Amino acid sequence: MKKLLYGVFAVLVLIGNLYADSGEWEYKWSQLPDMTIFGRDVNATSPNILADDWLCENGLPITDLHWWGSYLGWGADSAIPDLKLVQHPDMFIFSQHIDIPAGGQFPFSQPGPQINGAQAALGQYTWNYYGSIQHPSGMWEHVFQYNYILPVNWLQEQGQIYWLDISAIYNAGTQFPWGWHTSATQWNDSAVMNIPGIAGWEPITYPEKTDLAFEVSTVPEPGATMLFGFGAVCWFIRRLRKI
Asked: Based on the number of CB atoms within 10 Å of its own CB, is 23 exposed (0-12), middle (13-18) or buried (19 or more)?
């Protein structure tokens, strides 16, 4: 009896370790940055707020956020930026909203009521240099990727559209505001911006529909390893009943 109980425990530990160490993450939604000459950043430094939408396709919760941006005017004369001189935001503010679809009083879709929020101070989010773009003017734009693990998962409902809002905060201001970089793909309506002095949300169109670069990810659904482990546990239980 004890050997079988120890066997069940060992299988459960093995399953947990394999699953935890698999290093697999599933992206619920992915809009990669446009690294061509058409890619650009849109000022998302407070008090500006930018937002873009995505479709929840599997109902799994969001565990972490990934987004891309650059600093307006920073290192514009150099093809290779000096990363020691970059001034990253003191904080990013995020919020998740339900969708208000286009129609009726709104000619374009936009964020509705907020259902989740988070903030990541410098040191809580990670960043890495992603690449540079030389624009037709000859000036360079240096793009960074940012990552943040949410302290509490954001719950989702399969088939629903949600919005992600981002705004960068500098405690003492900055010479080079942070801009959310545009995406190489476009889905649904344009991303939107909320700028002080403008009533409500406005679509980002230069001159056509534009989306922003971000990914939301989740823990993957159990795969073959979990199914194998479940089968092994069931076999052990059957053995126990025969004893």
From this structure: exposed
Averaged pLDDT, 41-65: 95
Nearest CA among 211, 193, 213 for reference residue 27: 213
d(CA 80, CA 13): 48
Summarised one tens digit per residue, pLDDT across range 84-93 is: 999 999 999 9
What is the pTM for the complete model shown? 0.80
CA distance 31 to 182: 9
Cα–Cα distance list, 234 to 190, 212, 229, 237, 238 (Å): 50, 47, 9, 5, 6
Least confident of 12-26, 124-138, 146-160, 209-223: 12-26
Q: What is the CA radius of gyration of the chain?
A: 22
